[in-house]
Each structure stands twice: as structure tokens, then as C-alpha cells.
Specification:
Layout lengths: L9 E7 H10 L2 E3 L25 H9 L1 E7 L6 H7 L5 E7 H9 L7 E6 L1 E3 L27 H9 L2 E3 L7 E7 L13 E3 L2 H7 L2 E4 L5 H14 L6 E3 L8
Parallel strand pairs: 6-7, 10-11
Antiparallel strand pairs: 1-4, 2-9, 3-8, 4-10, 5-8
Helix pairs in contact: 1-6, 4-6
Length: 246
């Protein structure tokens, strides 16, 4: 059974320095699902090689066009595997927030209420993928969540996005999934995603962790950016994994 996550759970994203700048300047970006490089997203039950009879490939692509997804590592201690996968450059870092702070930043960004979910990802072996939907549940992010009355094939996609191949279990992932109010299989979405407000994107960052192999120059640059340029009181720490090897 999937579990509803506490508002106090620590969420971590391993990002490039450029993405940190973008978040500070333009607001936290939540992309639509079809911009993900993993084409298997939302297709776990196809890993055994069989075709999906519920929707065509075209319908799946269009459904992903209307669903926005934000992925987080749901734990406070650092992950060596996550640094290797998502912090490949020495000039990368991790930002931390909480479920409650992310929710507050979204709520304060003045979007029209969207159908929204937040929960942990369930990891499944391909040979038992047909059983992955049994007795599983995804949770609305708000108690007054918008009724989801758009096409059932888009609704089904939101559910699938909480299920991934067992090989990705090291990601220990929690996901925010939002469905655009204009979602339809009859047209495409011209937005690449949505941005939370700049002010509240900055406020939701509770800690920054620098790459284990970051240089003194990079550390100094981040400190000056946060403290001097943006005047933000965000704790900045060097990784606890200093000296670790790939």
C-alpha cells in the first residue's frame, strides 16, 4: 500500500548550478511529463514486451503533454547513487525542502486549483507488473482537490506515474503530479511546464548541499550568490561524502 507522506518529510533534489540560478531567477520549474528523457515513464506494465491495449502511443504522448511532474528524493541523508546519477558535475548541488514547504510555495503561487497528487513512487518487477495497481492508492495533495473529470486515459496516466521499474528503487522517489485544467486528448499543450513564484521558490529552499568534489572556488561562488546577491538566509553545507569515489 502506498503511504501518505508527512508534511515534515525532507525532500532533496540533486541539480546543476544552472538549475539553481533558474529557480532563483524564474521560480521553481515543474515540467510536463513528456519532456522526461525516460520514454518508459507511465509505461511500467509494458516492460515485459507486450503492447498496451488501453491506449495508443499517440494518446499516451498527448496525455503526458498535460501532466506536470516534479521528482524528489525523499530522505535527508545524502545518497551516493543520486550524486552519481543527477549530480555528475563537481559544480552541482542538492537543494532541500519539505513536503509542507513545497506545498506552501505551490499554494502561494496563485495558480487556478489543479488536480494534484503527492506521494511516494512504488517500484515493481516487470514480471509482476500487471499486479502493480492492486490495492494501491495515490493521495490528493489538498483536501479540496479539484474533481478530476477529464478523459479517463489521462487520469490513468497520473496513477501510472507513481509506479516505476525496480531498477530505479535507489531513487527513493516522491512525486508531485499536477493535471492541467485544460487537459484533453484532442489537442496539445503549448506550455513546457509551470513555474512557482520566484519569491516562494526562494523561501522553500531550506538547505543547500555542495557536491562532494566541489572546488573552493565553487563553494565561494555559491556562498556569495546566496548571501550577497540574493540576501537569502539559507544554510550551505559541503557534502558529508567528501573523498568518496565513484
Amino acid at each position: 500500500m502506498l503511504e501518505k507522506l508527512s508534511p515534515h518529510i525532507v525532500l532533496t533534489r540533486y541539480v546543476s548550478f544552472v538549475k539553481l540560478i533558474s529557480m532563483l531567477e524564474q521560480g521553481f520549474f515543474i515540467p510536463k511529463a513528456n519532456l522526461f528523457t525516460d520514454n518508459w515513464e507511465g509505461n511500467l506494465h509494458l516492460f515485459n514486451g507486450e503492447k498496451d491495449h488501453f491506449q495508443t502511443e499517440g494518446e499516451l504522448v498527448t496525455a503526458k503533454d498535460w501532466v506536470y511532474v516534479s521528482c524528489w528524493y525523499q530522505d535527508e541523508p545524502e545518497s551516493h547513487a543520486m550524486w552519481n546519477s543527477y549530480g555528475q558535475s563537481d559544480d552541482s548541488l542538492a537543494i532541500q525542502t519539505t513536503n509542507g514547504d513545497l506545498k506552501s510555495a505551490y499554494s502561494a503561487s496563485n495558480f487556478d486549483p489543479m488536480c494534484s497528487y503527492f506521494g511516494e513512487v512504488y517500484y515493481q518487477q516487470p514480471d509482476s507488473a500487471y499486479n502493480l495497481y492492486d490495492r494501491k492508492k495515490i493521495f490528493s495533495w489538498f483536501s479540496n482537490n479539484n474533481d478530476f473529470s477529464v478523459n479517463g486515459k489521462i487520469s490513468n496516466l497520473t496513477y501510472r506515474l507513481y509506479h516505476k521499474h525496480k531498477a530505479f528503487s535507489f531513487e527513493n522517489e516522491a512525486r508531485l503530479v499536477l493535471v492541467d485544467n485544460d487537459a484533453t486528448l484532442e489537442s496539445n499543450n503549448d506550455k513546457a511546464g509551470i513555474h512557482l513564484s520566484v519569491e516562494h521558490s526562494r523561501e522553500m529552499i531550506k538547505k543547500i548541499i555542495l557536491h562532494p568534489n566541489s572546488s573552493a572556488w565553487f563553494e565561494d561562488t555559491v556562498h556569495k550568490l546566496i548571501k550577497d546577491t540574493y540576501k537569502l538566509d539559507i544554510p550551505i553545507h559541503k557534502s558529508s561524502l567528501i573523498g568518496s569515489k565513484n
